[in-house]
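User: These chains co-purify. Model them together.
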Amino acid sequence: MDLQYFFELTLSGLTRGSIYALIAIGYTMVYGIIELINFAHGEVYMIGAFTGLIVAGILGTMGFPLPAILVLAALVAMLYCAGYGYTIEKIAYKPLRQAGRLSPLISAIGMSLFLQNYVILVQTSDFVPFPSLIPEFAFLEPIAHIFGSSDFLIVVVSAVLMAGLTVFIKYTKIGKAMRATAQNRKMALLLGVDADRIISVTFIIGSALAAVGGVLIASHVGMVNFAIGFIAGIKAFTAAVLGGIGSLPGAMLGGLFLGLAESFGAGYISSDYEDVFAFSLLVIFLIFRPSGIMGKAKVEKV
Amino acid sequence: MKGKISSFAIAVCLALAGAASADTIKIGVAGAHTGDLASYGLPTVNAAKIVAKQINDKGGIGGKQIELLVQDEQCKPEFATNVATKLVSDGAKVVIGHICSGATKAALPIYTEAKVMVISPSATNPDLTQSGQYPTFFRTIASDDAQAKLGVDFALGKLGAKKIAVLHDKGDYGKGYAEFAKKFIEASGKARVVLFEGITPGAVDYSAVVQKIRQAGADTVMFGGYHPEASKLVSQIKKKKMDIHFISDDGVKDDTFIKVAGKDAEGVYASGPKDVSDLPLNKEAIAAHKAMFGADPGAFFDSAYAAMLVAVNAVSKAGGLDFDAMAKVMRTDLVDTPVGKIKFDARGDAEGVGFSMYQVQNGKYVEIK
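Assistant: Joint model of the two components:
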């Protein structure tokens, strides 16, 4: 076994896994709180990428330096997408809060289709180049051929954001309220937690993270298109389920697990079956450990 | 007595029929003229009409007028055999068509049997010429494997490639290109296919595949597919600081590729249709179409016009409708057509038709002569 090749594949799996993890958090947080799979989440990621593109275009003509453009584009995309997340919840899910589980799911799929078509109409259905916003780090130069600046930034930013989010949920008041709502919404309500507000906050945080992912990944890949959210969304959803949907560390682990599995599968077996590896893994997990890596088996109380 | 009359009648009829066929040169035009695929077939009918009118106005071929026998088969193989039988029994010795590869394949055994010369403007299935089963078949369009052949010849000849990684997007078009490329590389014996893989369109990144290309030690990548995947691949190859040649197909020879891949596109090779719009005869043919039908011509008009011109040339140079004489003219005589000056190889493919190699230089595709 070639050790360097193994190392290269590990790093490429790490980058990919971080991407999945960043998007998976949005799925898992929303599921944790209202037990809804927000299929429009991938589209929020896509809108984040488009927002980043527009902002970068404007700032670029104004002559801002590259790192400033990246940071500002990401911040604006986060704000904008947070607004989208908030609005999507209010329009598509809140009115259905008391309905069965199927109705919000259908509403989510509708929202996803709506957002895709909206972007086709107001932007374009074509592929659009995304400027390379990530600067070349000098200290990565010796290993740039296996682990470039954009890979590095994606992994680091994902790790920092996840650590921050974990601290936020563990120690802040809103974080505590979120956990309480996730455990038992009725009880939380009785104890004075404003559940509607918590749900909105969840959507805002998840969407903002997806926007960061959108900007970073679009800059890494160099192009955006209205359909990028679909595949990324499906893969991130798979990651969330692998990790145990509803669990934050689970989403991170699931993302990394999926990224590494795809990378090794493509590297050692064949990239023809990349998606086959990803989804076979999902099937195997659903059969043998449906609650995922970190998920706890749910005990139904009678 | 009765028997005598009827045999006399038959003799008269035969004589009349013979006289009729001696008066005109019958050229069949077969393809889809109704149905879903009519837009592929009708421009060929128009091309045939234009050329026939021009020749007839000048007094025909050797004093004989051209008579077109237009037959519709909707690109359906079962209709194509009926049409072929009808054209053969109606006395056509030359057929322009058919349009779709499937219908052409179904009709060809009938023409082969009857030694009727068939010239298709649009049937691109490689087997039609390469199988050697249909010696009377010619075509004025490049076959489906022409791009892969061009790409491989270019990689081996001009670039001196020794280790080639062949990738595709798993779609019909891309995979077909990749499979032909692999076949040609292996047949040449000059280079090895070190990697043959499909990639997943729309995946978030291709770095694992790119690492695999490096691991395989490839000096050239041949990719069958379209520009979105190609631009992701080339930019990741550049990001990984790899210096290798990238050759692709018509699906990548698109300005969107250059727009999206930006400076990473520089140096990429892609094959694409030869630019024939500047040829004087091409302009003339389009002008003739506008004058006669009042609109711009449709799909395969150029190659149909070319097919009609080579057919007329073959008949007039051969001095008749004998297949062997006509075929000899087709294979040796260089004819000026709207798709360039062409003649045919032993298998019936037009030489000098089809694709050129282009390279991205300073943000533009430049034809490599």
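Chain B has two domains: 2-141+278-351, 146-267.
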